[in-house]
Amino acid sequence: MQRTITNYLIGANVLIFILMFVFGGLSAFNDPRILLIFGAQYGPLVAEGQWIRLITSMFVHGGFLHILFNMFALFYFGNVVEKVYGPYKYFSVFIISGVVGNILTQLIIPGSFSVGASGAIFGLIGLLFGAGFRDDTPTMLRGMTGTALLPIILINVFLGFTSQSINNFAHIGGLAAGFTFGWLTPIRFSTSSWRIWRYIHYLLIGVVGASFIALIIFDFITF
What we know:
With about 220 residues, the protein is mainly α. It contains ten helices and two strands, in the order ααβααααβαααα. A two-stranded antiparallel ribbon has the order 1-2. α5 packs parallel to α7 and α7 (about 120-130) packs parallel to α9. The radius of gyration is 17 Å and the shape is globular.
């Protein structure tokens, strides 16, 4: 299997899903306590200082269909974004968008309980959406950027408002963050900007790793 950021992200999500199953069986995905142990975002805990949950919750899913649909979307859009923007910017936008979506959720619904990578995935969609409004976006990419993505965006946002189990604020926040990057930054960037994205990429890898280490410490103290 090719070593890509997409495959690593999918692998990380699947690994946590398997660990949850080993830890609590099928009931683990409906058990708030187990979801919290593995990093779910719970508004009151975040407000108390466990900001790491804004990151760790992106890698936790609440059932087989939840992770199946999210990983399918990540596989499709992730591979497109990675080929177009490269691994550094891709991973950076993914993590930042997911965090922005979770922050928006925290601000609007302080008592929220949320898991899933969909906010970060919407960030990838937003990145491509925003790229369609730049004059320097290559013509060959127009079919997968800009208004070409509107049907997917509108349908998913609409569905998000029809179900209480869908965190639409994470979707909207992630989409907005991704759009901002796609609209303001070019696809073809200079060597200096490439280096900046590389630094951000490795910094965020460290932040994600540190977040899960901190989560383990919180779990040991709390549970």
